[in-house]
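Predict the 3D structure for this chain.
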Amino acid sequence: MRKAELKEFLDAKVEYYNHPRFLETDPLQIPHRFSRKEDIEISAFLTATIAWGNRKSIINNATTMMELLDNVPADFVKDHQEGDLEKLSGFVHRTFNGIDFIYFIKGLQNIYRQYGGLESIFAKNAKPESMQSAITALKQVFFELPHLNRTTKHISDPGKGSAAKRINMFLRWMVRSNGTGVDFGLWKTINPSQLSCPLDVHSGNVARRLNLLTRKQNDAKAVSELDKNLRKLDPLDPVKYDFALFGLGVFEKF
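Done. Predicted structure below.
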């Protein structure tokens, strides 16, 4: 398939899958339940953190997370006292448990109190064509409080070779335009051109079939390769093709 044909094909898939009707089965529906900026970004960050495995289970457990935070995640994160965290201890999603959840709330509180929030950390450490160093910086800041080593695995680090799928997905949610009612476009200090595709088994397999990716592993090097090829199709908004690659993989078994 020639470049022009490939772009036309993928653009059509983006238009189809970048639509609110797919929110019914997507974890992104969780932050769409909120209207305040910081409620949206905190609920999105926590939802993205547990976004692996069965999507129905992700949605159910993210809903439980929000209920445990009294459905005011920003207020809970900013104002909680130590005793408020006890009710989080029984939470479990696969390997993410109550210990991890409690630390994430503490880590987020530290970020909002000491660094001005998640957006400021990402914006400060971003590079013109990549957010990957900013993800590494976030992890360093996030775990500056006392913590168990087991909890660190729940934030990936591109600097150590990870594709960091869930954080790249979170960044897509926050940065891309909300013109279609799917992504939010809340963060104006970061451009869509800086984003990377959230690479997983579905998008990776489709990308290889379309000759957008040759690397066999879904890792940081694969993200970099895919980024370069998607930017050839749309340098201003390359990550929009996440909708096409994921949709082709999950819904069409391409």
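The longest helix spans residues 98-114.
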